[in-house]
Amino acid sequence: MPLTILSALLLLASASALPQGQPPASPNIQNLTMWGTGCPIGAAGLISGVRNGTPIFSFSEWRLSLPNVDDPENEATVSKFCTEEMTLNNGPVGLQVRIETVTVTGWAELDEGTKLVIEIETKLGYIVAGQQIATIAKADLKGNDFEVPLEILPSTYSSCVDETGAVPKIVIKTTVSLIGEKRADGTVSKGVVGGAKALGVHFDPVWRPCARPMVRTK
Fold first, then answer.
1. What pTM was estimated for this model as a whole?
2. Are 138 and 114 a contacting pair, CB within 8 Å?
3. What is the annotated signal peptide range for this record (predicted)?
4. Which of 65, 73, 93, 106 is the most exposed place for a label (fewest CB within 10 A)?
């Protein structure tokens, strides 16, 4: 995926958070890597659109399924994960960033008793920034679609962007699991996620000025 597509997108939604009189910066992505069992093979994911100024990553190869098995010892949980790691430069000097929300969208078909669990973990540089977990049941689906905004807690900010413009590395790990219900007859409730529609991952960053050191007066 050409990284230049992202260069002008990441902070457009955050311009209003900048101090008045300071022009918004447009960080450039130096490197974007993804790895994990849920990432497309040989690619860094695709961009299916832009919302609030940040890209929506689309994973069309992410698919999980729980069969209706007759073996009561068969594992009733399947999961995949994908970690996105972004290194940016030309950032807004004197500001720090946090990931406010990560929204995951997709398609699922769930039996009664089957749970779809989505977990988000974030890092900003070497700081473990926050995480969130959401559980979806059949009744939570709209048709077969779901859209889950996860508020990342605690609200941890990165270190400051220094005069070099280097933004602390943004890392977002998405884990999706299907948990089947083991029935009395030895079968497990079924479920499929990511079958008919790509899994989408979108994040909202928030910026603020760094705290200035106190000046001691005599």
1. 0.81
2. yes
3. 1-17
4. 73
